[in-house]
Amino acid sequence: MHRLMRPVLLAALLSLASAAGAAEWQALPMVAPAPADNPTTPEKALLGKMLFFDTRLSSTGTVACASCHNVMEGGDDHRPTSMGVHGQLGGRNAPTVWNAAFLSVQFWDGRAPSLEEQAKGPIVNPSEMGMPKMELAVDRMRRIGGYLPYFRRAFGASATIDADSIARAIAAYERTLITPDSAYDRYARGDKSALSAQQRRGMQAFADVGCTACHSGPNFSGPALPQGTGFFQKFPTYTNNPYVARYRLLDDGGRATVTGKPEDQNLWRVPGLRNLVYTAPYFHNGLVQTLPEAVKVMASTQLDKQLDDAQAADIAAFLESLTGPFPAQSMPQLPPTPGDMLH
Q1: Across-strand partners of 282?
Q2: Keyword Hydrolase on this protein (predicted)?
């Protein structure tokens, strides 16, 4: 079951957005939530980082999670759509991995209820990492003898290498990829000097225009929901504008491509808004190249409002204040590859 905000509900919420005001501004927590059956530990996160960077999880031995989610920068790959094995292009823009731990469902269409389930998807996607089935990826990891001690340190002395432990380790690492302490976070915690005058204007405009009806909460991805319950919105909601055709916003059916339900046509998980300065190009198809243009597109297609250049620039400046420091990343040393593994 998922939560869907219909346009009539959206209109009602917009009337409350300005009144909510600064009382609703929330700083990002310093630690990401983790499920009870997969608590984050240093040993698990280390193993997950190794797997995240390991190209041997792909059919060709050339593509890793990190290939499309570069944690040395924006957590994505800056392509409109990502390139997988054999140079194949995927159908959607790679979402950033930074702060994905604060989303209640994963992927643009919300088809994965957790980071654990999301971690398995790209491995067997034919245009991403290209393994015909997950069991083949598991067998390959088992053949790399150096991995088993890491799995046992992470999951216990009797642990084995299987699909779930691979996914749980990657998810644990991803829960360390969070970016609190942005200028906005410092402002929300009481440091009123943390934002510039333009950013403060943009913050007020963000609320007044109605952006907070969908982009609320500390991650600006909507209200807190139980894990596995997605927060979705129709995009575009209003189609009487030039952006819909210019950026081909109706070409992809969104969640309907997963559920097959007509009511899910062009329905999308509401994305977070942090670190946007690092994640251009924007939207599910990666066709909008600048942040001020993305602001104008959203105002027109979601709120039926036309912003001038100054308003868009102010809101973009506020969104830039959501950029937080990335936790330091070091390249992991991986176990050696058997000589007969990749032929």
Answers
A1: 288
A2: no
- Judgement on whether residues 14 and 81 belong to the same structural domain of the protein: no
Whether 164 and 52 share a structural domain: yes
Catalytic: 128?
Answer: yes
- Please state the separation of Cα 94 from the chain's center in Å: 8
Mention every residue, 6+ apart, whose C-beta is less than 8 A from residue 341.
56, 61, 140, 143, 144
Tens of pLDDT, residues 250-266 = 999 999 999 999 999 99
Q: Same domain for 254 and 159?
A: no
69 labeled part of a ligand binding site: yes
Which one of 116, 128, 174, 293 is the catalytic residue? 128
Is residue 37 included in any domain, yes or no? no
Which contacts of 73-76 are long-range, i.e. CB under 8 A and separated by 24 or more positions? 73/278, 74/98, 74/275, 74/278, 74/279, 75/177, 75/275, 75/278, 75/279, 76/278, 76/279
- Residue 340 confidence class, pLDDT cut points 50, 70, 90: confident
Same domain for 236 and 104 = no
5 is in an annotated binding site: no
Check the annotation: does 215 bind a ligand.
Answer: yes
- Residue at 134 is within a domain: yes
Total number of domains constituting the chain = 2
pLDDT tens by residue, 43-77: 999 999 999 999 999 999 999 999 999 999 999 99
CATH classification of the domain holding 127:
1.10.760.10
Distance of CA 301 to the CA centre of its chain: 21
Residue linked to tokens 């333009």: 198
